[in-house]
From TrEMBL:
Protein's UniProt name: hydroxymethylpyrimidine kinase
Keyword Iron-sulfur: no
Origin organism lineage: Bacteria, Pseudomonadati, Pseudomonadota, Gammaproteobacteria, Pseudomonadales
UniProt keywords, alphabetically: Kinase, Transferase
Organism expressing this protein natively: Denitrificimonas halotolerans
InterPro entries in UniProt: HMP/HMP-P_kinase_dom, PM/HMP-P_kinase-1, Ribokinase-like
Metabolic or biological pathway, per its Swiss-Prot or TrEMBL entry: Cofactor biosynthesis; thiamine diphosphate biosynthesis
Residues of the Pyridoxamine kinase/Phosphomethylpyrimidine kinase domain: 17-253
Pfam (any one): Phos_pyr_kin
Organism domain of life: Bacteria
Amino acid sequence: MNTYTSRPSVLCLSGHDPVGGAGLQADIEALIAQQCHATPVLTALTIQDTVDVSDFQILEHEWVTAQAKAILDDMPISAIKLGMLGSLAMVDTVEQIIKQLPDTPFVCDPVLRAGGGGALGKDEVGYALRNKLMPLATIVTPNLPEARILAELPEGTADECATALLKHCQNLLITGGHGTEHEVHNRLYCADGSSHTFTCARLPGEYHGSGCTLASTLAGRLALGEDLVSAVKSALNYTWRTLRDAEAPGRGQYIPRRIPLDFCHP
């Protein structure tokens, strides 16, 4: 007789990317690789490819809350991962959902731009996220361009942005890779005042979905009970490997290979 065991379930509130590089597909694949179960709540539909985003549509409040209710009424949630919001109304919708899960590890990925640079919502959405959702998060994971938008420091360094943003959140991971340095520096700023820098070799090319991959992996590691600093290190290492092994199915950016080719083989 089969013995069934349950993997930790992670609530993913994200948009849909039709080419599968970012958004909910990235969440699902990354969480499978962490031996977690993704419970996806769709927040937005996008029209994008591996080059850039051309348009998006935000789902109605009732549809998003109904998806979340179906999940929360049915199973326990071990962590939350937040991705694309796209509107002020969606910030309020998601705030209502997250407040139903107090003390649940919550990774807030402030998705403000697509990998190709196209906007996925006005800056005002980022400011609303900063004021309403970041204070609820266990950790916030912007890249440096997103951190500059949220901190309202267009030329700010990671340290300067962190000083501004830690007024709004407990822990902050600002990812690098958007400059020209040979080594990428990812900086973790913790609520206890400590900071940690994780470095990795810069890989050639541009990647579509790396931020989603990192945030969902981090949510999975926290769902498994890993402590924050260790979970960040695990998530960064895994994400780097997915970029190292990335594939190029389209004419634009590479897509991270989140599930190894031999993953399902005995």
